Amino acid sequence: MTGKLAEIALRTHAEEAVANHQVRHSVQVAPITVAALITPKWLTRHLDVPDTATHVILPGYCEAAIDDPVHAEQPEMTWRKRLAEIANLPPENILCGPNDCRDLDAWLGGKVRSVELHEHSIEIIAEINHAPRLSVEEVVRVAAALRDDGADRIDVGCDPSRQCLQIGDYVKALVDEGHRVSIDTFDSRETVAAVTAGASLVLSVNASNRDAATQWGCEVVAIPDTPDDLESLDTTVNFLGEHDVAMRLDPILEPIGFGFGASLLRYAETRRRYPEHAMMMGIGNLTELTDVDSAGVNLMLLALCQEFGVGSVLTTQVINWARSSIKECDIARRLVHHSIEEGVPPKRLSDQLVTLRDPKLRPYSAEALEALASGIRDNNYRILAQDGVVHLISAGVHLTGDEPFGMMSELLSMPQSKNVDVSHAFYLGFELAKAKIAAQLGKQYEQDQALQWGYLTVEEKRHRIPRQSRHRRD
């Protein structure tokens, strides 16, 4: 039993799971979108069990109420029993499965299914802004780093303020290093030199230069004369088509405050008008011109591209908050490809883009925390962080707070602190600082381990206290 949103995913994973366990199955899709909203009471009006079924597996979220009484005056009649009567099955055969259908095989006793995010269908074009202001060697070095982060093509961004007579040298150097190259200029002399040197894509073409584009012999990006003028894009597309010029279409993404929403509608309209044409979206107008960390913005834009059939994105990473946009786009394009191909939300697939906070916290209950604090008999220090509070625990010590300096000051004033030497104090200060960050952001803190920042995580070497300190933290 599931809701409409999870139908595709459940059918796929159920087929795999039951094949591993040699059982037959059927799937009932309830008239509700989200399976998590299904309750046992609601199911009494919607459960439809085939006569051949021996067990019913409900969404895991039903677990919280399945054994509640239907009526307070009849505590023996639970929702499980009521559903069993409807299904004509023993109550013990009415089961609550996993919350996530991807865990069905593991719930049945198999292994947790891993998701491979190797596939993608969007090309990443990484622009090097004002490339002629750099040396050829610098451009080659930057391009190599961009390729390592996931770029499929290097876009040589020319300088609008002055013509570069050596642009062919830049392009040739990149081509010699195995890069696919595009040239970003409206200057025809720069375009010809770049194409001659090996550039295979020109950004961009409209009424101002489409006549010249017929002589370049390469693919071009067709754009409107002004962003809100799709009719001018139609004219350029028709002209290029009549002259057999390969093209991809870019209706131009506008920044927030300058018609962002309307520009998204133009992408949808362009796809409707030209269902067979390749398309491109320049996404830097959002990531570079919005005061927000770029990872989430990149994911949303890549999702739109995947749904609209936009096969390439052009981006850059100039401003600091977008300095890792290429890597983010590479992760995002794999997530959205899998999501749309499999018909599942991009959730619990990868935590690489979950950077500020963590996917899930594992806090201790108040009772467990108190038992830990009261049960410790040694002088080693345990550090925990949850619910915005840092805990420092040892034999006879349970300090709480959110300020490492204050906590260390309080610790050093206690008789138990005689075991804290200089190296130990440095260690505790370092770990308390990490714990404070975790508590402040709502991250999971694990002592002696690096905080998890998704794809930005840098694992830490384990720094043990020198052996001569009797009370080191092992």
Describe it for me?
- One of its GO terms (molecular function) is dihydropteroate synthase activity.
- Residues 106-337 form the Pterin-binding domain.
- The chain is α/β, with parallel strands linked by helices.
- The chain folds into three domains: 7-107, no CATH class; 123-342, Alpha-Beta Barrel (TIM Barrel), CATH 3.20.20.20; 366-456, no CATH class.
- The chain has helices spanning 7-21, 40-43, 79-87, 104-107, 136-149, 167-176, 188-197, 210-213, 230-242, 260-273, 284-287, 294-308, 325-342, 366-375, 404-412, 422-441, and strands at residues 56-58, 69-71, 74-78, 94-96, 123-128, 153-157, 181-184, 201-205, 219-222, 247-249, 278-282, 312-315, 382-386, 389-394, 397-401.
- β2 (69-71) and β3 form a beta hairpin.
- α5 crosses α6 (167-176), α6 packs parallel to α7 and α12 (294-308) packs across α13.
